[in-house]
Design goal:
Layout: E1 3-5, E2 11-12, E3 48-50
Antiparallel strand pairs: 1-2, 1-3
């Protein structure tokens, strides 16, 4: 399942991950550390919603 930032619209796709942010491809959103932030606007995981 993909997740969308409610602030800027960034899409977190588990198949892609966030390599620059230290999140490997294949990492489910639930397994991302709580201190991870949106690579575009800097908000936390709580500001993402499933899509």
């Amino acid at each position: 399942m993909k997740y969308k930032c409610k602030i800027c619209g960034h899409i977190y796709d588990p198949e892609v991950g966030d390599i620059p942010g230290g999140i490997a491809a294949g990492t489910p959103f639930e397994d991302i550390p709580d201190n991870w932030v949106c690579p575009i606007c800097g908000v936390t995981k709580k500001d993402y919603e499933p899509i």
